[in-house]
Every structure is written in structure tokens, then in C-alpha cells.
Amino acid sequence: MKKKGKVYLVGAGPGDPGLITVKGLNCIREADMIVYDRLVNPLLLREVKDGAELKYVGKSVNHHTLSQNEINRLLVNEALKGKIVTRLKCGDPFIFGRGGEEAEELAKAGIDFEVVPGITSAIAVPAYGGIPLTHREINSTVTFITGHEDPLKEETAVDWEHLAKEKGTLVFLMGVGNLPKIVKQLLKYGHSPETPVALIQWGTRPEQRTVTGKLTNIVEKVREARITPPAIIVVGEVVRLRENLNWFETKPLFKKRILITRARHQAGELSCLLQNLGAKVIECPTIKITPPKDWKPLDERIKRLSEYQWVIFTSVNGVEYFMHRLFANGLDVRALGNVRIATIGSATAKKLKDYGLIADFIPDKFIAEELASGLAEITDLKGAKILIPRAASARVLLVEKLKEAGAKVDEVATYQTVLGDGLKELPMLFKKGKIQVVTFTSSSTVRNLAEFLYPQSFGQMLKNVIVACIGPITANTVKELGGHVDLIAMEHTITGLVESLVRYFA
């Protein structure tokens, strides 16, 4: 029996990927095909399942990838093939989003569909601009108007005389190009020239810009600021509240363009922390974490775990791959019952705790030298057998220090770090000054970024960029390759790196 298709008309929210609904996110993850608009945040597309098809149907002024009729036919045809199609629209699909037209076509064709409401830019963008649309002491009504229609045409769907007399808040969507005409109509029908006005461009995103004025001067102010679509126009006394309620544009990393070089599957934590502080995050996965070339050496050590006095984990990846292989060998954490465990760093210890294990030793400073010397202080290492499951081609310093203390050390490749997918436009972003900060979380991220930038000089490309490193070892690698370092995290963790960036820009 042929699989029955279905279409979800999903509102993706106004731009901040965190504003999509839980149901909307589930629809993205379930879809066989995503049909998405120009203003949908690309970060949401990372949530698609493997094999899902992405179809861009974005529209901009004087350029439509597909006409609305073609989009309608696309949704119907793909659903008839038995696909689950998620139509991802900016904002809410039923508020100036033409979702109603698409739903009508689906209903006419007998296609099963659902509408998943989204947070419309009409309410979210003013909120991110520090402007409440209603306020008990100021107004009790709000009106949403399309600004796309020419206000001066003879037959208009907008009752300008009524709007001009309205004492509540007016919100115009898609109206930047018509701003002079909108202002002219409001003044013509008696709106006060002193009425406050705000235009908010790229609302809810790190690129957000806001211009405020009054009806008599807002056109000139917007022209001087070169505000272009997309932008929301807010007219009303509530605009005055922005002076005290501007919470988004005052975030400590607001508008800072920060490059993340971590592996794609690990970038999420750092990306989320930076975005929550207002940064514009650019992800360039310079590394990829993969299994070792051969599991046999690790499997042999796992079978002889009882012979070791200590197991030392130097990274979260080491813990994850070791545990994966432990379980693959038919064992569980009880195999570590008589073994003491040390970790470099609180993040590694936290990952260990996810498996029900607590580290016996964590050095105060999260570097190999501190772990070796600290371990020697709390126990006699002479003759002690130590297992270090870690990355292939890792630094030898830890092993050397432990051997100097008399330990018998087995280091075994538990995973390997290879070249990541990178970012095709990366060199151009550097040349155009689109990157303000580069973050490095390991020496591998440094070396691989240098490879992506080749044949350009690594140091030259980073010349006008702030370089932030998670620790001194990573910083030394930057310097060895001819780069400079502006800051090193005091605590060598992702959280410590973010805190150092906040202090740097304070």
C-alpha cells in the first residue's frame, strides 16, 4: 500500500532559532522534505533527519525563486508521492504568510495537512526591541497592518482614516519601502506629528538594528541609518518605553561575530551560550571526531581493566568512545570497580558522571602537567599501571611525566581527530572583515583552520581578529603557526572561554 503523504505548514518564528515551537521543531525532524523561505534561520535546517531534501523557495524584492502557484503545486505533488513535507515559513503561516492560500490548495487536492502556528514577527520583534505593544497605562489596543500595499493607490484595503484616529499601537509589516507614504497617510488623516515611531531591522537576530524618532522625522532618520528590509514599523506611545526596556541590544556580546571551530556535533553548547549573550555565531567545523582505525588495541585493554590501578581520561570524547567500546565488549561500569579514575577538567568529569562514575582526582588546572604532578602527590606512582584512553596522535607530555614518576603507562587510541567539513566561504569572510572573534578549543582546531585558510598566511588572516583560546596548550599552537592570542580562558572549559570573552568586551 502506498504511503500517504502529509504537509505541515509550520511557523519558524521571526529569526531567533530559539523561538520556534516544540511542535514546529518536531515537524522539521520528521520531514522527508523541507520547503523553506528566505528569512528562515539556517540553524533550524541542521535539525533535519539524514536524507531529508531541502527545497529553497525564498522571495525577495523583484526576485522570486518560485511563484506562489508553483510553491502550491510543489507541496501538493510531493505529498502525493507519499512524502512528509514541512513547509517552513518565517513568523506565523497565517499572518501575512500566505499560509491560508497554501492550505486551500492542499484541501482542494485532498492532501492531509496541519497548521503549526509560529511566533509572528509582529509581536516578537517589538519585544526584542524593548517595546511592549500594549501597556495598561498607555494603550489597550494593537493593530497589525501590511505595509507592502501602496498606501496611495486609489483602492486600498487599509482604512487610513480609521487608523489615524486609532490611539493604540500600529504595527506595519513589510513596510520599509513604503515608509514615506505610510507617514504621509497617517499625518493626512490627523495622526499627531509627535507620535513616536520605531523601525526594527532583522529583529530577534544578532544583526538587529533599531531607529527611533517621530512621524515628522522618522523617514529622514531611517534614510540616514540605511535601514532596509526586513524591518517592522511600530507607531505609538509605547515606543517611548524602549529607553528603559531595551534588553536585547544591551547583551554583553551583542552583534559580535564569533567563529566556532569545534566539531559540528560538539558546537551546540558553545554556540548556544554565545547566542544567549547576543553574539552572531558562525560555525566552521574544522575537526571531525571518528573511531580509531582499529578497535583491537582498545578492546584488549578493556578486557584487562582489572590489571590497572588508574584510568586517566583527558577529554569528553575519550569518555564517550571508551564507554561505547566497554558496552560493545559486553561489559558495564562495574568493570571499573577496582580502578581509580582521574580526569583533566570538570567537563570530562561531568561526562563521566553521566555514566554513574565519579572521578577520584581532578587537577586544579586543567592541563596534563598539573594532572601528572597532582597524581604523584596523592599516590605512589612507582610501579603503578595506568591506562590512558585518548585521541590518536595526542601530546606525549602526560605519558612522559607519569613515566618519570615510575608509572607503567599504556596509552591507547580511543578516537581520532580528522579534518572537518569546514566552511566554503571562510577565506572570504576573513578578507571582508565579517569575523571579529575566532575561538579555538583544541590544538587540532588551530591546525585544521590553518589548513582551510591555506595558501593564505594563517597569521595574516587572523591579523585583525580577536583570538580566544580555551587553554595555554591551544594558545601555544596558535603562536607556533604564526598567529597571535588575545585571551586565554582562566578556567579551561567552554563556560570559562565564554566568561573570558564577556570580560574582554566588558
Q: What composes the largest sheet?
A: 5 strands, parallel
Spans of at least 5 consecutive residues with low confidence: none
* Helix-and-strand structural type: alpha/beta
Strand content: 15-25%
Classify the fold: give the CATH topology of the largest domain: Rossmann fold
Total strand segments:
22
Overall mean confidence score, pLDDT: 92
Task: Domain count, please report it.
Answer: 4
Name of the level-1 CATH class of the largest domain: Alpha Beta
N- to C-terminal separation? 63 Å
Q: Can you name the CATH architecture of the largest domain?
A: 3-Layer(aba) Sandwich
Q: Which strand order does the major sheet show?
A: 3-2-6-1-7
Percentage of residues in helical conformation: 25-40%
Number of continuous helical runs: 19
Radius of gyration: 28 Å
3D shape: elongated
Description:
The chain is an alpha/beta fold. It folds into 4 domains: 114 residues, Tetrapyrrole methylase, N-terminal domain (Cobalt-precorrin-4 Transmethylase, domain 1, 3-Layer(aba) Sandwich); 123 residues, Tetrapyrrole methylase, C-terminal domain (Methyltransferase, Cobalt-precorrin-4 Transmethylase, Domain 2, 2-Layer Sandwich); 116 residues, Rossmann fold; 124 residues, Rossmann fold (3-Layer(aba) Sandwich), CATH 3.40.50.10090. The protein is 33% helix and 21% strand. It contains 19 helices and 22 strands. The strands form 5 sheets. Strands 3-2-6-1-7 form a 5-stranded parallel β-sheet, sandwiched between helices. Strands 8-9-12-10-11 form a 5-stranded mixed β-sheet, with helices on both faces. Strands 14-13-20-21-22 form a 5-stranded parallel β-sheet. Helix 13 runs parallel beside helix 14. The longest helix is centred in the N-terminal third of the chain and has 13 residues. The radius of gyration is 28 Å and the shape is elongated.
